[in-house]
Amino acid sequence: MTDSKYFTTNKKGEIFELKAELNNEKKEKRKEAVKKVIAAMTVGKDVSSLFPDVVNCMQTDNLELKKLVYLYLMNYAKNQPDMAIMAVNSFVKDCEDPNPLIRALAVRTMGCIRVDKITEYLCEPLRKCLKDEDPYVRKTAAVCVAKLHDINAQMVEDQGFLDSLRDLIADSNPMVVANAVAALSEISESHPNSNLLDLNPQNINKLLTALNECTEWGQIFILDCLSNYNPKDEREAQSICERVTPRLSHANSAVVLSAVKVLMKFLELLPKDSDYYNTLLKKLSPPLVTLLSGEPEVQYVALRNINLIVQKRPEILKQEIKVFFVKYNDPIYVKLEKLDIMIRLASQANIAQVLAELKEYATEVDVDFVRKAVRAIGRCAIKVEQSAERCVSTLLDLIQTKVNYVVQEAIVVIRDIFRKYPNKYESIIATLCENLDSLDEPDARAAMIWIVGEYAERIDNADELLESFLEGFHDESTQVQLTLLTAIVKLFLKKPSETQELVQQVLSLATQDSDNPDLRDRGYIYWRLLSTDPVTAKEVVLSEKPLISEETDLIEPTLLDELICHIGSLASVYHKPPNAFVEGSHGIHRKHLPVQHSSIDTGESPVSSGPAANIEQTHVIPSQGDLLGDLLNLDLGPRSTCPRCPPCRWGLWTLTVLIACNSVLLLQVWLPAVKAKGLEISGTFTRRQGQMYMDMTFTNKALQHMTDFAVQFNKNSFGVIPTSPLPVHTPLMPNQNIELSLPLNTIGPVMKMDPLNNLQVAVKNNIDVFYFSVLIPLNIFFVEDGKMERQVFLATWKDIPNENELQYQIKECHLNAENHKKVKISV
Questions:
Q1: Are 225 and 181 in contact (CB under 8 A)?
Q2: Omega before 777 cis (within 30°)?
Q3: pLDDT for 563-607, tens place per residue?
Q4: Distances from the Cα of 728 to the Cα of 674, 708, 765, angstroms
Q5: Residue 35: its H or E element
Q6: Cα–chain-centroid distance for residue 708?
Q7: Are 196 and 180 contacting, i.e. CB atoms less than 8 angstroms apart?
Q8: 284-316 pLDDT per residue, tens
């Protein structure tokens, strides 16, 4: 009979009977009783009152019984810590048992019992097990160190267990190496700034040796560890890639994705023109394609990871687009993901195949999938300009089907095509207008209204069309109301004599009869513009619109780089960094792709991935031409640094006001966060103890941390340059700010600027290089006491060329001796 019999008893007084059986002299009876206890515990019954009786059963040579007792202890020790102490002697004794399975079982169980009193007794047995002669015991002890660290981190460090774990990396058994790596990685996540793994070429070589012989989960641990290593040069990166590449053919999809992660990171270090780089790209394609032959759930995980890879390196799968064609029996979540990847791989070479597929998908029965397919046709038109006409023709064919949701989605898509290619496909507007009455979705109605308003001068009955929408204005969604308001204002500006009543009606509905603040605000703005300055209104409302982007749904580059470092994990499925969905993850060290060691010379923006790099790379930007570019050709309008000095010509009055200004000025925003991918820089200039300073506050308003800050000035009128690097030695975390003072001197290259005190600045971090321009108050250049010897003053005055001297004659100014004295002093 099977063990299921233990789950079928519901007798009253069962606890009493179990207690008696647990104390039976016969081993078989005790074993049966313990099985019954575990079965009761499994179905949720409280059998904690049997704790002393179960503990007494620990003294046995039967491995199966011992496992059952240990299982019971792990479950109830936390609730009865005082009773659990009774089992300590048995644990310690079992840790010295001749049977390695019992030794490993004992140390594993002690690590799982989260009771402080027991962990105190665990140290000595654990130390012995870490040096046990049997590899099974050593690998179990390695994992136990990570569990113990979670309970009492300080004790693990004091007892030297971390050093013992590092020693296990050099173990002869590959599974011991894998578990040691897994334990150290787990501990490192709670100490992101510590270098517990101490990855160096020697240790990496040991890990690569163990990689070929350990189990699949051991391979995953080692590959994840390798992905955190930064090779010192291109040769070492290529060597590691060569030894990791065989893992791409592994049967376990998790091993394949971990290997892909390592190779994707190290591709950053390989020159793109090398033969090995291209060979590696070709080797990455087949394993990714193979992942799509698994179960739908595995396919979905693979597709989410492939989506990231295609955004980073589309050339890997550019020849495999047919793999992503949808099958009739694919679940909807797989279909949608395949569709997204198909669009990302669409190009001029394969657009005909893609459009044929999408047109087929648009006739399926699944409404959501059909909508996505129609939207995908529009994305193809926007992405591949040569295919735009064919895409528009396909959309018109779909509109002719008169299927309501297909027509509405097509109109939304065509609006975007008009935005991308203005004045090119307006001939189809008549066809769109034929379907006006069938539109009932807000997106489609808003799109059609936008088209009518934008091309009102080409539509004879535009006023009638818009007036038909106006009849049920208050029943429309806010999106439609706002679009309709703007469209009618556009129509009025294009045909003022014919639509005056219509615009008055919509403005009245939007302002006086509406309680929506957004709608009212826009209505009042239009009303004020039209009534006061129609010319300006025309410039604002009918201004040329920016072309929409080709890929609006691409992941932000820095986030994409971080997600590439998490391939094979939940982050790559959610497309979010771990700290966005893991509780208590604020301390997690955020990962970044490595950077070629020549990137500073070539002008690329380096991304540091370790504390050491933060210190090395934080320096004044070395080459002006590479990173700054030609700042003189950029539109860097100067900002006034002194809020109390009105803009004016640089004459004597301005100079006097600048001197009178307090040397400690209010911080002004020099670089807004919206223009610097989340980095905001505020600052001012000061002079302290004879030294000029640029006082700044850096604020991180992005989602990722920022490192590798550096600064450089363009040539300027006074030769101002920084005398030291930016003093930012630690990463600037999200929503944090740092205040710093940058000392300046005037020994740099000189070039006359307009205005004279304009300073163009470049600031670099791990995300990009950002430029801004500020005005330096002239009083910053003046010494504090202002004294000059009479002879030096006269000699300096005579050295000024005559053409630079200005003379003014003051008339009708009556002075007595006292006033004359005051004027002389003030000048």
A1: yes
A2: no
A3: 998 999 999 999 988 888 887 654 456 677 776 654 333 333 333
A4: 22, 8, 11
A5: helix 27-42
A6: 17
A7: no
A8: 999 999 999 889 999 999 999 999 999 998 899
Could you tell me the pTM of the whole model? 0.65
pLDDT tens figures, 200-247 = 888 888 888 888 888 888 899 899 888 888 888 888 889 999 999 999
User: For the purposes of burial, counting CB atoms within 10 Å of the CB of 504, is it exposed (0-12), middle (13-18) or buried (19 or more)?
Assistant: middle
Query: Across-strand partners of 404?
Result: none
Are β-strands 668-671 and 710-713 bridged in parallel, bridged antiparallel, or unpaired? Answer: unpaired
The rounded distance, in Å, linking the Cα atoms of 113 and 144 is: 11
Strands 758-764 and 691-700, sheet pairing: unpaired
| Beta bridge partners of residue 682, listed in sequence order | 669, 697
Whole-angstrom Cα distance, residue 302 to residue 284?
A: 13
Taking phi over 0 as left and psi of -120 to 50 as alpha, with beta for the rest, 575 belongs to left
pLDDT at residue 765 is higher than 60: yes
Contacts of 391 (CB under 8 A, 6+ apart): 355, 377, 378, 380, 381, 417
302 or 650: which leads in pLDDT: 302
Specify the 3-state DSSP secondary structure of 34.
helix
Q: Which amino acid is at 307?
A: N
Q: Which residue has tokens 């890990």?
A: 207
- Quote the DSSP letter at residue 293: G
Q: Assign 583 to helix, strand or coil.
A: coil
Q: How far apart are CA 801 and CA 123, in angstroms?
A: 85
Percentage helix, strand, coil for the chain under 3-state DSSP, each rounded to 5: 60, 5, 35
Two tokens, residue 234: 């291109």
Considering just the CA atoms, what is the radius of gyration of the chain in Å? 37
Say whether the peptide bond before residue 672 is cis (omega within 30 degrees of 0). no
Report the candidate in 516, 515, 519, 492 with the shortest Cα–Cα distance to residue 504: 492
Q: Helices marked H in 585-651 — which ranges?
A: 599-602, 611-617, 624-628
d(CA 8, CA 35): 13
Mean pLDDT of the chain: 80
Q: What are the pLDDT digits (tens) for 135-193?
A: 999 989 998 888 888 888 888 888 888 888 888 888 888 899 998 888 888 888 777 66
Phi-psi region of 216 (alpha: psi -120 to 50; beta: other; left: phi over 0): alpha
Nearest residue to 228 (alpha-carbon basis) of 610, 618, 704:
610
Tokens of 213: 């012989």
Range list of H helices, 542-690:
557-564, 570-574, 599-602, 611-617, 624-628, 652-660
